[in-house]
Amino acid sequence: MVIVLRKRDPFLATSKAGLFAKDQSSPFPKFPKKLAGKTLFITGASRGIGKAIALKAARDGANIVIAAKTAKPHPKLPGTIYTAAKEVEDAGGKCLPCAVDIQDEEAVYNAVGEAVKKFGGIDIVVNNASVINLTGTLETTMKKYDLMSRVNVRGTSKACLPYLKDATNPHILNITVPLNMRHEWFKDNIAIATVAVEVLYDKDTLKYCRKDSIIADAAYVMLTRDSKTRTGEYLYDEEVLMEEGITDFNQYLVSPESPIAGVAEVFEALKSCCNKEVVQMVNAVFEFQLTGKEPGVWYLDLKDNEGSVGSGKYPGGEVGCTMIMDSEDFVRMFQGHLNPLQLSMLDRLEIKGHKVLALHIPRLMGKLAGRTIFITGASRGIGKAIALKAARDGANIVIAAKTTEPHPKLPGTIYTAAKEVEEAGGKCLPCVVDIRDERTVDEAVKEAVKKFGGIDILV
């Protein structure tokens, strides 16, 4: 089984790595010891999520191979492969600490060989190791970016594959960052590698973060399932746990008394939806009368100027659509778990006024009208499909690809794709770009900024 397990933004009621949370215990209900005697090869397990997964499996009596670089204490980061190994053995597992740089193929194969010699094989691989570079994205060199890619992406799967084939229930689990990254994460390239919570977030924000145990619990669920029935999936930690009946995710918070994703936080996020393009599209005011845990009245003005949000009755006059609902349903609606139609069918939403306006709600977070999207490889296939989808919203599309002349076997060029984009309702700039050539990439970016005034999204 090959599974990618993703961590979501905590605003969306899922996890972020609680790297420095001292309490690594899990509130998840105890399972039978399904991993007893299994051998897990875990990269980056000297601390954080990797160690949390190791300890979770160790409590079953599993054999753990810790493959990480930290053999000596780090001045700022807790733990080494040896301190983590001691914790694993104290938790009931057996452990082999291996000093491994994932970039070093020989070191990886040596560690795999040691693991097989000591434990007789490998049943599970967890690709968790990652590297970060704390400079701004614009200041990050290709060399440093390539370093992050070599460590974060390549993993150890190939070296372990011969032994996984002999295992009775083999698994490969890849730990990765969320797809829906918040805009403030983009200030550092860490947003596309991993999250160093202590560096990027202040103490007030940290209390809304999740402990590593949420990933460890989700990983445990996936690693104990039948690999023949669950494979090739991209899953979020929360959805995995929800399948097991877990619904209270506040128990995973670093500070459980600080629940995440309240009504006020949703309206704070909705501010980013307020712009002239959305106002022109919707041209209405919404009022939300909320009951339950967070009762109150709020409004979303998508009619005047560039739009606005606020608590209390709308001060500007007529409201086009009033929605009466439970505050928890409201939060889940804007998280994408529910939509107005579903809530209405369940008799959990009452709509007054122009009911058709409620159909705009699911689209508010993702409307692309007027946004500029830089898409590589968009002359055909998936890239072009994304471009056409966004073009129907009225987006500006930059097609960055090599194909300027018709290919004898492959359909389309950057110019035929550009024509389709414009016919779909978007504006388009076709650019001849070889992604390996930094000069052509820079030139295309400059052309895009000159034509459209900036870039909002990179695909």
Automatic annotation (TrEMBL):
Which Gene3D superfamilies does the record associate with it? Answer: NAD(P)-binding Rossmann-like Domain (3.40.50.720), SCP2 sterol-binding domain (3.30.1050.10)
Q: Which GO terms describe its molecular function?
A: oxidoreductase activity
Q: Which InterPro entries match?
A: HSDL2, NAD(P)-bd_dom_sf, SCP2_sterol-bd_dom, SCP2_sterol-bd_dom_sf, SDR_fam
- Superkingdom of source: Eukaryota
Q: Which residues form the SCP2 domain?
A: 275-364
Q: Which family does it belong to?
A: Belongs to the short-chain dehydrogenases/reductases (SDR) family.
Q: What is this protein called?
A: Hydroxysteroid dehydrogenase-like protein 2
